[in-house]
Amino acid sequence: MTTKQVRIGMVGYKFMGKAHSHAYRDASFFFDTEVEPVMQAICGRNEEGVKQAAQKMGWLSFETDWRKLINRDDIDLIDIVTPNNSHAEIAIAAAEAGKHVYCEKPLAFNLEQSKRMLEAVQKNNVLHMINYNYRFAPAVQFAKKLIESGRLGKIYHIRATYLQDWIMDPNFPLVWRLQKETCGSGSHGDLAAHLIDMARFLVGEFQEVNGILETFIKQRPIVEESSGLSGTASTEKMGDVDVDDASVFIARFENGAIGTFEATRFAAGNRNGNRFEINGEKGSIRWDVENMNHLDIYFHEDEPGLQGFRTINCTEDIHPYASAYWPAAHIIGYEHTFINLIVELLNGINKGCSPSPNFFDGVKNQAVLEAVERSSKTKQWVTIEEMLI
Ligand code: SOE
Q1: What's the longest Cα–Cα distance across the chain?
Q2: CA atoms of 351 and 103, how far apart (whole Å)
Q3: Which one of 190, 245, 247 would you pick to mutate in the ligand 1 pocket, going by the greatest count of ligand atoms within 8 A of its CB?
Q4: Looking at domain 137-354+366-378, which CATH architecture does it have?
Q5: In this predicted complex, what is the ipTM?
Q6: For residue 129, what is the enclosing H or E element?
Q7: Which of ligand 1's atoms lies nearest the C-alpha of 187?
Q8: pLDDT for 308-355, tens place per residue?
Q9: Which CATH number applies to 4-134?
Q10: Which atom of ligand 1 is nearest to the CA of 164?
Q11: For residue 209, what are the β-bridge partners?
């Protein structure tokens, strides 16, 4: 039985706004949370758009000015689902207004902003979390348990890719996700950030990186109005693309493991190929979000002749989060990763702690992102330590 409530004010309402709203609606439906989320108010600049979104997604009220939202007395938590360049300003103001903060990834536009965001939540003693949702797939949580219990032994390798292809057409317009002033970087901050979170979650802390960022299409048609993922070119005018189309890097971890990472929007045929393979001294695991309930596992100790990858359907009651949903093999999907995360956030609020991934993780993630960017410019290895000084 839920007794306490947390009243949410969300800034932004497009793709991620929909995913977060859905998670708030379903969290206490599937889970016995101690705290119930109340969808108090949603905020967006376009009055008609935000009004319609509020009605459709079930928000009790709406605002058109985020400053008004964060100063409302009937809001406990600010959820930020706006483009990256606005995260810091909203999060810092929200923390100063005494609100807990839940923010979309990557935490900020750059490392300096993410450090200021962390300082603000610490100084104002508010709780914080960041949306790296893929770690909340039951199969990924199960992989974590296997690694922590030593079933793979010492970890040697992680090989992680995030492959998309939605901007391969050179006439695809210059939407905000392709403009540095709005998002900071391209596939790097959008996709490699997920890989970095996964690697930190499953393998450990990064020590040093060496990488390249590449922009294949240097100019694209300008758009007047766009969402992050689509838009129609409004004129024949072309604008410069100042973010990366692809990011590739190698890494050394503090525990001696090594990793290869590839994030691209130019991998034809791959719509959302978020995948990893981890190899340890006793076996391997591999996962692919497009088949997200499955975890492939190989144990070296299996008897000769029977060795090989087996596929576990992580939907049994024994698998993390799975018992809250359906009977075994009645699969769950992308949206459930957000619900699982929100449940952790609600439980964290109940206990007065900030569950991981929180702003500490956000800063470390951003340090790796920026180390790769620096390495791409200098053509040198860059340590994470030097980024965090
Ligand atoms: C677009 O590339 C995008 O929606 C990312 O922004 C998300 O973080 C990722 O989960 C799916 O792709």
Answers
A1: 66
A2: 19
A3: 190
A4: 2-Layer Sandwich (3.30)
A5: 0.95
A6: strand 128-131
A7: 2
A8: 999 999 999 999 999 999 999 999 999 999 999 999 999 999 999 999
A9: 3.40.50.720
A10: 2
A11: 251, 382
